[in-house]
Write a structure and sequence with these properties.
By secondary structure, the protein is an alpha+beta fold. The protein folds into 2 domains: about 100 residues, Winged helix-like DNA-binding domain superfamily/Winged helix DNA-binding domain (Arc Repressor Mutant, subunit A); about 60 residues, no CATH class. About 60% of the residues lie in helices and about 25% in strands. The chain contains 6 helices and 6 strands. It has a 3-stranded antiparallel beta sheet with strand order 1-3-2. A hairpin with a 2-residue loop joins strand 2 and strand 3. Helix 1 crosses helix 3, helix 1 packs across helix 4 and helix 1 packs across helix 5.
Length: about 180
């Protein structure tokens, strides 16, 4: 096997290993961020590897709220068992440590969603949600007059959704929150 083929195979095994170790569905953006920040592989090799793993049905791709999330398939697990040994022990250790450290943040990112769309020249629709166990706890749609307001609302929702949600429920139930 030439070096280029070996590197390609090693990258695919690395992706399978990470997706298995993270233990939750991971988005393309999250996966890209982790792979680039930790210098596991470059962007182009990552995207090529992902595409091939999806085509070969070694990872599953599920789209939720216009975001693709990846999980390892049963075939992928079997393939990983056969080829995991090509990954150096140090890399596997770094991947496990990284996955353990970032898993809570990824869960939060997947459960707190804020996005906006341009409805017409002077109106943006903002959608803010909290998802738990694949079901919405809250799903709010707002119309605002500027892109800046839409961005501001999305940023605040992502940062403070866990505090805002109980306040909204309290107000709707007629209970005062302190």
């Amino acid at each position: 096997m030439d070096y280029e083929s070996f590197e390609k195979a090693e990258n695919k095994v690395l992706l399978l290993y990470f997706i298995k170790e993270i233990k939750i569905p991971v988005s393309n953006m999250q996966l890209t961020r982790v792979m680039l920040e930790n210098r596991f592989m470059n962007y182009f090799l990552l995207q090529q590897g992902l595409h091939e793993l999806i085509s070969d049905r070694l990872i599953n791709s599920e789209t939720r709220d216009n975001i693709d999330y990846y999980t390892i398939s049963e075939q992928g697990e079997k393939m990983l068992e056969m080829f995991e040994s090509i990954l150096p022990a140090g890399i596997k250790s770094r991947i496990r440590e990284t996955a353990d450290a970032i898993r809570p943040g990824f869960r939060h990112e997947a459960s707190v969603i804020a996005e906006y769309t341009l409805e017409n020249e002077n109106e943006y629709e903002v959608r803010c949600k909290i998802i738990e166990n694949s079901r919405p706890l809250i799903d709010i749609r707002l119309s605002v007059g500027s892109r800046e307001d839409a961005r501001h609302i999305c940023g605040n929702w992502k940062a403070q959704a866990k505090e805002i949600y109980p306040q909204v429920i309290g107000v709707l139930l007629g209970k005062e929150r302190k």
